[in-house]
# Entry
Amino acid sequence: MKNTKASIFLGVLCSSALIICLTPAAGMADDDVPLKMTANAGARTTGGTSIVQISVSEWTRPEERQMLIDYLKAEGSLRLDDKLQSLSSKGRVNRAGEMGINWRYAYRFAKDGGSTIVLATNRPVSIREASFQGVVGKAYNITLAIIELDEEGMGAGTLMIGAELAFGADGKLEIGNAGQNAIHLGSVRVLGKKKK
# Structure
């Protein structure tokens, strides 16, 4: 059974041109970090929920972002995790009391009435999984979060564990396996955000 490819709209239509040219949100500078958020994480398969903490310690530089886009277009998703692993930590996601994982990519895009934050990291593949699933297991090697925030710092998003990224023939960024391990992020709130 083939995994359904989901075309993701990162606030606006994510074509190959727009993914390169989207304007970063105003104020995406060093004084915006650290950015700390909390969210209610709900697994769509089990229905269980927990509170997660999401932080951004620094934003991905434009040249790092371009390097990842160029690599994905040229080589595909299979070894994109190696490129992500080579980048410095950009933040973390974890449940209370747990170590969690480091983000290797953190970028924010402007949209009407708020912003979209895209976070990504390499998903570790266990020896057991690699042995049983081989290249198939290694293909779904990216953990990705897309969070939509309003001007008040409130919003929602999706955390995808084990996604495969690729550019489709129409130039849109496709995310394979997006629904298999998707976690809904509800009641996302930026901590310390002053209401207008």
Observations:
- Confidence is low (pLDDT under 50) at residues 1-23, 125-137.
- The radius of gyration is 16 Å.
- Helices lie at 16-21, 62-75, 80-85, 127-139.
- The chain has one domain: 5-190.
